[in-house]
Amino acid sequence: MGSKKRESSSKQESALENGEDKQKLNVSSENADVEPSKKRMKKEKKKKDIELPEVENMDEADALPASSNAHRAPLNSMERKKHRKLKDKVRHSGEGQKIDSGAEKMEVEPKNDGNESGGTSSSGGGLLPKFHIGVFKELAAADASVREAAAKTLAVELRQVQNAYDKLENKDEVEDKSKLEAEKDDGLNNCAPSVRYAVRRLIRGVSSSREVRFLISIADDFIEFFACARQGFALGLTMLVATVRSVKLESLLKLITSLLEVSSSMKGQEVKDCLLGRLFAYGALARSGKLTEEWKSDNNSVLIKEFTKCLIDLAAKKRYLQEPAVTILLEIVGKLPEEALLEHILEAPGLQEWLEGATEAGNPDALLLALKIQEKVPIDHKFNKLLPSPFSKSALFATDYLSTIASCLKESTFCQPRVHSVWPVLISYLLPDVIQDADSASGPILSKKHKKSRKSSSADEDMEKNLVSFCEIIIQGSLLTSSHDRKKLALDVLLLLLPKLPASYVHVILSYKVVQGLMDVLSTKDSWLYKVAQHFLKELSDWVVNDDTRRVEVIMALQKHSNGKFDCITRSKTVKGLMSDFKTEPGCILFIESLVTMFLDEDQSSEEPSDQSQTTDDNSEIGSIEDKDAAGTLGTAEFLKSWVVESLPAVQKHLKLEQDSAKFRVEKEVLKFLAVQGLFSSSLGTEVTSFELQETFRWPKSVIPSALSHMCIEQLQLLLSNAQKGEGPHAVTSGVEAKDLGSYFMRFLGILYNIPSVSLSRALNSDDEKAFKKLQSMESQLSKEERKCTTTTDASKIHALRYLLIQLLLQIILCPGEFFEAASEVVMCCKKVFASSVLESSGEDEPEEDGAPELMDVLVDTMLSLLPQSSAPLRSAIEQVFKCFCKDITDDGLHRMLRVVKKDLKPARHHNSDSDDDDAEDDLLGLEEAEESDEAETGETADSDQQTDESEAVVGVHAVTAELPDASDDESDEGMDDDAMFRMDTYLARIFREKKNQAGGETAHSQLVLFKLRVLSLLELYLHENPGNEQLGQRIWGIIQKKILKAKEYPKGETVSVAILEPLLEKCLKLAAKPFKRKKSASNPSKKKQSASWSRHRLINSLARSSTFWILKIIDASNFSESELQKVCDILQNILVDYFDSKKSQMKCEFLKEIFRRRPWIGKQLFGFLLEKCSCAKSQFRQVEALDLVTEVLKSHSSATEKTSEQFLKSHVPKLSNLIKHLVTNMPEKQARRAGVRKFCGKVFQMLATFKLSSSFVDALEEDGCAACQSQFGDTFLALKKQV
């Protein structure tokens, strides 16, 4: 009976609770001697299943009667021991759950009384406002806004409850029925029962951790409740204590100590939860303002000292509690007045001892506390060794003091990845907020100009001195030389310095050791610090994004301490990216000035060169030194200067200015530096002033090496070439010199050349000096003539010639004794081109003769003579001149260019042949190609008989040449020795003579190939400007075919890269499959135009097929891996997909058959794919046509060894049977196609019978396939079946 009664009572209570709030946790029984209900027993059993049974807490013995355990079964010793362990393990989880039970009872009782009697209950439920217990659940929500709203609701409701409780005359009416967990001596006797319960529950709640959440999770409500319990309960405690004045500070301190006491039986997470709970509870008291209120009410209160002592004791327990405990203490320091700070905080027991041992123990939090207190109250004498006495900024960053606190700062790494709070405080002393450079691109030059005036002040000097001391002692001396964690901390601290750092102090933080450390880390991707260094560089780049002054300082620091190799060593593009982002003229000018200063000042090079900085890499595009013997010709200091030289032209290369005048001014600054350092030298000191230019020019104290001077001239040529390309259409009416960099250079050159104390850095011989002056004079005359021009065409011609003269002038200085003849010829051509003008004539020029060659022939011959060994800027100038004059080129000039393309290196043959070459050069298109050797090409025996389309494509050329007599001997110049060739063509003779002097002739051959490519680029320009010359295009095609595609020599060996051949092969195959398209614009094109278009299409198609064979020959001869060869097959497979599926594809089956015949390995790789596509081809015509491809593959493998062929055919029998089954069941209607199918099937049957694969083939056909084959082939198929 007793059992049933207890069960019934429990069920009734449970039903009442579910009716009140379905989402609340089940409450415990109210009666003292009642056993748990079945529902509660099931819950306990479920908790035991997850190894967290419901255990009573020792601190909550008063919450439930002691007799509640009366009916439990007796436990043996092992069970009691295990029970105690589990009891300690879930102590706090049990507390939280029983709090809910007691709280629900408090809410339920008034409703019971109210519902039953309708009046004031004996428990006081009708006397006090209702307190919604559900806010505790919302305090643990993951959403911060929900937690804040719950904390406000809790504070408001409990304040109303407390106000109503204070107004009660007889408080015993609610006191007797609401003991709950409140103890008689908790110090909250003046608080309402709900307030007492809430305070205790909030204090226990701050010890709830995330780990407890998952361990005791039973339902979704528990998971949500414990999600953010610690944060939410701390917020609720803060607002409750700040709102309800009846809660005394003394009582709170006692409750925190008693409820969150760490017992000896606790271990691991339990200890951590209690300690963190006390920390959060103390933080709630600090933020509530209760301590300030306590001091105002009683200046002699000891509670502030006790609170401080509790925090210090807590900080001493665990390292992770130290910083947050000091943070709480600092919050109190900020709220209390100075008197309370001096009398209570600093006089707290244990504080002075804790501060005194900070430097020895390495305690950064003690240093932080001392600095913050000193900031509010100047009492440095209280901190002994921790702060300098007397305290000042200069003393704070003195070398001796920084060495003392270095141990404290090094130990601040325990809070990583977060940076300790002491660092921002130190930085605020080091760099005040008021000193900052303006972050704008509006005036970087102004910040540079005022740098000296700022640095002249004593405050700025002290700040720089302090920053240098801080970086040397702390960053470089303590952190960078220590562990990886401290290296990371060093970079993090430098990032903290950036927002307040003036640009003029960048060199202090980016010192030699910092830059070297970055290079060491970034040079190895496997390093733990690699991502840290990358993040530092990214933040550094973001810091300079809007300030060119900062950008300049960062670039100069990185390159100075890496000897110009930062990008090379780190394998990054940091410096390159920074240099390419200059967008303003002032920023560029500032950068140029800094580069010039680095070049001229001898002390700019790094004083501590490292072995690692000597490594070179051509990864950086801007400022890279590519294959220039940096280790030998250029030393460490010269390497940095060479980076300066190469970086200067790169500034304007990436610069995009809206105004051309701004870009021109930047180019002028670069030009002046390169011209002064590369072309001239001073005989009187290192400075020369030009009164005409009103500028002073400087040279380094040490003599510039010849290699560096050579580099300056090359960069000057490149600068002028880029300026010519970027000019666009030439303006002939406006002042040319205003924005003409070439005119400015020649004027600048003339002025410096005439200064007595300045001379050319390289002495010129008489021939070079004569040519130099001729070029100067002619350029000056052409410049005047250009201003007078009224037509754009003439002005463009003169402009192109002027830049050619300028490039030749620089080339004479660069290569003495090599270009004076070509320069004289170009000057002579300039005079003849503009003979009608008022160009001054020289008496030294030879008079014209009646038999003199055409002017354009001389100009072409001169330009060709310059091509073999010219620099890229000179070639660009030649191309510009050729483009302007190509419409006037004669057939004889074109013939000379074509003959260069055809020329081969052959051994000299001497015989008495006085034939005149001019007799064989009557007509451009009437010249017959040199006869080729009759030797057959290795591996290409069927080239001539298979390529019928090629012969059709060049039928026009053969038709023209067939009418002419054989002049191959004269044309090919086989009868001339090298000396005769030298007299006729100096540009070819130079290469031939070099071949004679060098063993093997490899250098001569490579030069000849390069020469041919340069001439072909000129011919390309000619065809672009003269698109109607079809015969010239055919002639070039013939040369390419004979000299390249059908030549015995072709690229081979390890130098051949499949990555280069793949796109070329794909392009050739697409051109071979490209259909012929008629122009839509011409409604009725003439037959002549149609014929020309068709001939051009066949020419391109033939060239594409020949190029495909040539590329495959190179691939076949190279030793590529299987994966690389598979990529080649994939390209061909994609072409076959278009061949089968697209009607637009005009790929010839014969062409594909020839590929499979020449390269059997391709057919073998694609055979299975071919069988599948033939079975499902969209077009029946393509399907039958492709059977020839299958036959060709089978034929190529039938010639192999019998075993290999059998294995190959056996592996494809299923697909073959599927294809034949498809063909015989869908026989074509046209007779020709049916004949093709029968022919194919007959060959397959024959091969199957030969290799005895008939059985597997017939089995794969199945019955319906066999019946179809028998009906179509009759006896032929029956004979095959008999072999089964």
From TrEMBL:
Using the UniProt annotation, give all residue ranges assigned to the region (Disordered).
Answer: 1-125, 603-625, 929-952
UniProt GO MF annotations: DNA binding
| Key words, A-Z | Nucleus
Q: Which residue ranges have biased composition labelled Basic residues?
A: 80-90
Renumbered to this chain, the Acidic residues biased-composition regions fall at 52-62
A Pfam family per the record: DNA_pol_phi
Its cellular-component GO annotations read: nucleolus
| Taxonomic superkingdom | Eukaryota
Localization terms from the record: Nucleus
Q: Where is the composition biased (Basic and acidic residues)?
A: 1-10, 91-114
Q: Does the keyword Hydrolase apply?
A: no
What are the GO BP annotations of this UniProt entry?
A: regulation of DNA-templated transcription
Membership in a protein family = Belongs to the MYBBP1A family.
List the protein's name: DNA polymerase phi
Q: Which organism is it from?
A: Salvia splendens (Scarlet sage)
